[in-house]
C-alpha cells in the first residue's frame, strides 16, 4: 500500500498517481474563504469544524494571501468564525475549546497582519463587527476568565494565556491596540492573581501570567486610567505577592546560573589564556540569545511591582533556603526558555529550592540578591543597545528601592547579613576576587559594591552618562537615609571615594571629547556633593572617627585631582560659553574640599620639614589631620541631604514606551507555531465523553 504523506494541508499518495487530497479541515477553511455562508449547505458546519485539528499554518497563510479588498468581501464569514469560536469556548468537550482557542490565535494574528498594509480597515470590525464587538468581546473575556480560574486542564489555561499574549502583542505599540480596550473593561486581573497565588498554577503558568500583567499595566498608562495599574498598586495578599516574586526570582536566577555556566566554560580549556589576556571579551557574546532579551519582560514586571506596590517591597527580602538544606527533588531542574523573551513557563514550582540555585557558600538568598547578581551581569557590557536598556532598567529599579523607607530599613538591617557574590568584569589591573573571602554584610553593602563596580568599569569613549548619573543618585539616596536615621554602616568607604575621584579624573582627561555629547558638569557636581555629604554629615553615619579621618586623608592624598577640577571649572565659568553656569556651580561646590586641602597641606609640609621626613606615611598624615581639625573652618552647604524623587511619567515615558515595544515584538515572535502545538493537548483530551 502506498505511503501517505502530509504537507501544507494536502494529503497525497507517494505514487503521485492522483491529484493531492486536502484535509477536511482545510476544505472547511476554504468554504469560509468564500462569500457564501458555509452553514447553508451543512447546518452542522461549525459544530464539525471545532472537532477538527486546527491547521494554524494554512489558516494564517490563507489570511495572509488575501489583500484588504478580498478580506472585506468575506468579512461576514470571518465575523461568524470569530463568534462561533467564542461560543465553542463554553462547550463541555475540551477538544472543541482547544481548537477554538487556537483558531482565535490564528484569526487575530492573520487579520492583524493584513491591517499592517495600506488597506486601512479596522481590526475589530474585521474580526467581530462593530455592532457585536462589545458583547462578543465581553463573552470572550468572561470565557477566558472562567477557564483560567477553573479547576480544569492546565493545558487549557496555558492556551488561554497564549491567546491573551497573542491578543496583547499583535501591535508593536500596545497602546495602539484597540482590542485592549475590551481587556481593560472586562478585567482578567483577578484570574492572573489566582494563578500567581496557587503553587500548582504558578508552576505551570507563572511566567506567562507575569509577562501578561507587565504588558497590560503598560497599556496607555499615561493617557487614561488603566485598571490594571490601579489594582496592582493595592494588592496586599501575601501569597499573591510572594508568588509573583518567586516567578521573577526563578527567571532571573536561571539566567544567572546559565551565565555562570557559560563563564566557567570560557575560563577553561583552550580559550582560558586568551580570555584572561583580552579581558574575557567573549562573555557578552556567549549568551546573547539568553541574556537581556530573555529577561526584559521579567525585569519590567519587577519594576512595575516595586514602583506601583509598596507591599511588594517586603517580597524583595523574603529569604529562600539554599539548595543543600532541602531534599533535592527527583524531577529534573527546570529551565526558563532560551528563546528571546520566552513565554514558556518553567516546568516546576518556583517555590522549590532547586529552582533558586544559590552559591554553595550562601545559606539563604532572596529576590533582591538574585536581582543584584543579575544586574552585575547585564551592567558589565553597555555597548549593546539591549544591554544598555536592561542596565538602565536595573538602575531605575534600584532607584525606587533606594527611595523606599521600608526597603532601606531591611537593606541596612544588621541582623540581615548576606554574602553576595556579584559578577565582576575581568580587568587586567586587578585580580579576580575570591568568592569565599566575601564577608556576610547588610544588603546595602552589595548595592554599594554594585555601584562602585559600575563606576570603575565604564570609563570609556562611549561614556554611558545617563547610567553614571543614576549610579551616583542611588549612592546619594542611600547616604541620605543613613544620615537621617544615623545608621553607621561598616563598609569599605575608601573604595567608593577612590572610584569617585577616578571618575572625576576621567572626566577631566576627556573633557574635550565628552563635552561634545554630555554636560559633564552635572555629573561632576553630583560627585563633588557626595564628598560634601561625607564632609558635612560624615560624623553622623561613618562607622568610626577614624573613618572620618580617612576621608580627609583621601582628599589630601588625591588633592591634585581636585585642584585640576577647580582649574577646569574656573576656566569655563569665567568664559561666556554655554558651560558657564554649570561649571560655576561646581566651582562653588568645591569650597569645602579646597578649604580642607589648603588648610592641611601646609601643615603636612611643615610637619615633614620639622621632622626631616621626605615622605610621610599614612599614619603620620592622619596624626597631622587629627591634631588640626580645631583650626579648620568649613562653610555650611544647604540641600546636600535633599533629592528629587523618581518620576516615571515626566522623565522616563519615552524609555518605557520603547522598552515595552521591544518586549511586545519579542513576545509575539516567540508565540510561534511550535509553542501552540496540539500534540500534547490532543493526548490529554484523547477521548471525548
UniProtKB/TrEMBL annotation:
Domain of life: Eukaryota
Domain named Armadillo-like helical: residues: 435-671
PANTHER family attached to this UniProt entry: ARMADILLO-LIKE HELICAL DOMAIN-CONTAINING PROTEIN 3
GO cellular component: cytosol; membrane
Name of the protein this chain belongs to: ARMD3 protein
SUPFAM superfamilies named in the record: ARM repeat
InterPro entries: ARM-type_fold, ARMD3-like, ARMH3_C
Subcellular location: Membrane
SMART domains linked to this entry: DUF1741
Keywords of this entry: Membrane, Transmembrane, Transmembrane helix
Chief place of localization: membrane
Organism: Ptilorrhoa leucosticta
Amino acid at each position: 500500500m502506498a505511503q501517505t504523506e502530509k504537507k501544507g494541508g494536502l494529503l497525497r499518495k507517494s505514487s503521485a498517481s492522483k491529484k493531492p487530497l486536502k484535509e477536511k479541515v482545510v476544505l472547511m477553511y476554504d468554504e469560509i474563504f468564500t462569500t457564501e455562508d458555509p452553514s447553508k449547505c451543512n447546518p452542522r458546519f461549525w459544530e464539525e469544524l471545532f472537532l477538527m485539528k486546527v491547521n494554524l499554518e494554512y489558516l494564517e497563510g490563507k489570511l495572509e494571501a488575501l489583500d484588504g479588498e478580498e478580506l472585506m468581501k468575506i468579512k461576514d464569514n470571518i465575523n461568524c468564525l470569530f463568534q462561533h469560536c467564542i461560543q465553542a469556548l463554553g462547550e463541555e468537550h475540551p477538544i472543541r475549546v482547544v481548537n477554538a482557542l487556537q483558531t482565535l490565535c490564528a484569526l487575530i494574528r492573520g487579520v492583524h497582519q493584513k491591517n499592517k498594509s495600506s488597506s486601512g480597515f479596522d481590526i475589530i470590525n474585521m474580526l467581530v463587527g462593530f455592532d457585536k464587538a462589545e458583547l462578543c468581546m465581553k463573552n470572550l473575556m468572561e470565557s477566558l476568565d472562567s477557564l483560567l480560574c477553573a479547576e480544569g486542564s492546565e493545558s487549557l489555561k496555558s492556551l488561554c494565556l497564549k491567546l491573551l499574549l497573542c491578543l496583547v502583542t499583535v501591535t508593536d505599540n500596545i497602546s495602539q491596540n484597540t482590542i485592549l480596550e475590551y481587556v481593560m473593561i472586562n478585567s482578567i486581573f483577578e484570574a492572573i492573581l489566582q494563578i500567581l497565588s496557587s503553587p500548582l498554577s504558578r508552576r505551570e503558568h507563572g511566567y506567562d501570567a507575569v509577562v501578561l500583567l507587565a504588558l497590560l499595566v503598560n497599556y496607555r498608562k499615561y493617557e487614561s486610567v488603566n485598571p490594571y495599574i490601579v489594582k496592582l498598586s493595592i494588592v496586599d495578599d501575601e501569597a499573591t505577592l510572594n508568588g509573583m516574586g518567586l516567578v521573577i526570582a526563578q527567571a532571573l536566577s536561571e539566567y544567572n546560573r546559565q551565565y555562570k555556566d557559560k563563564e566557567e566554560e570560557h575560563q577553561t580549556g583552550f580559550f582560558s589564556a586568551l580570555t584572561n589576556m583580552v579581558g574575557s571579551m567573549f562573555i557578552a557574546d556567549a549568551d546573547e540569545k539568553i541574556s537581556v532579551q530573555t529577561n526584559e519582560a521579567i525585569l519590567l514586571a519587577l519594576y512595575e511591582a516595586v514602583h506601583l506596590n509598596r507591599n511588594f517591597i517586603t517580597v524583595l527580602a523574603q529569604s529562600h533556603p539554599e539548595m543543600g538544606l532541602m531534599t533535592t527533588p527527583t524531577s529534573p531542574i527546570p529551565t526558563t526558555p532560551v528563546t528571546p523573551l520566552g513565554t514558556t513557563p518553567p516546568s516546576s514550582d518556583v517555590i522549590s529550592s532547586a529552582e533558586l540555585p544559590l552559591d554553595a557558600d550562601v545559606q539563604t538568598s532572596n529576590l533582591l540578591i538574585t536581582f543584584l547578581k543579575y544586574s552585575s551581569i547585564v551592567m558589565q557590557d553597555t555597548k549593546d543597545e539591549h544591554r544598555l536598556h536592561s542596565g538602565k532598567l536595573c538602575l531605575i529599579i534600584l532607584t525606587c528601592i533606594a527611595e523606599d523607607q521600608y526597603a532601606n530599613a531591611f537593606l541596612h538591617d544588621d541582623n540581615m547579613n548576606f554574602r553576595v557574590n556579584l559578577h565582576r568584569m575581568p580587568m587586567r589591573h586587578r585580580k579576580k576576587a575570591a568568592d569565599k573571602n566575601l564577608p556576610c554584610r547588610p544588603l546595602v553593602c552589595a548595592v554599594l559594591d554594585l555601584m562602585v563596580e559600575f563606576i570603575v568599569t565604564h570609563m570609556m569613549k562611549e561614556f554611558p552618562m545617563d547610567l553614571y548619573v543614576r549610579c551616583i543618585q542611588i549612592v546619594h539616596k542611600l547616604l541620605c537615609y543613613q544620615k537621617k536615621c544615623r545608621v553607621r554602616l561598616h563598609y569599605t568607604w575608601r573604595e567608593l571615594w577612590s572610584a569617585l575621584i577616578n571618575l572625576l579624573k576621567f572626566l577631566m582627561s576627556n573633557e574635550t571629547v565628552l563635552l561634545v555629547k554630555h554636560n559633564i558638569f552635572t555629573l561632576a557636581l553630583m560627585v563633588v556633593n557626595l564628598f560634601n555629604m561625607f564632609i558635612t554629615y560624615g560624623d553622623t553615619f561613618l562607622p568610626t572617627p577614624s573613618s572620618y579621618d580617612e576621608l580627609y586623608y583621601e582628599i589630601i592624598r588625591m588633592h591634585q585631582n581636585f585642584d585640576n577640577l577647580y582649574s577646569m571649572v574656573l576656566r569655563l565659568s569665567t568664559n561666556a560659553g554655554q558651560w558657564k553656569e554649570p561649571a560655576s556651580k561646581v566651582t562653588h561646590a568645591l569650597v569645602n574640599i579646597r578649604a580642607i586641602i589648603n588648610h592641611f597641606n601646609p601643615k603636612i609640609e611643615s610637619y615633614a620639614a620639622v621632622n626631616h621626613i621626605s615622605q610621610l606615611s599614612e599614619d603620620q598624615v592622619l596624626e597631622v589631620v587629627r591634631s588640626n581639625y580645631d583650626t579648620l573652618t568649613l562653610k555650611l552647604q544647604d540641600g546636600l541631604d535633599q533629592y528629587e524623587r523618581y518620576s516615571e511619567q515626566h522623565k522616563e515615558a519615552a524609555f518605557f514606551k520603547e522598552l515595552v515595544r521591544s518586549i511586545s515584538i519579542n513576545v509575539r515572535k516567540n508565540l510561534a507555531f511550535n509553542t501552540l502545538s496540539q500534540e500534547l493537548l490532543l493526548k490529554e483530551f484523547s477521548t471525548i465523553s
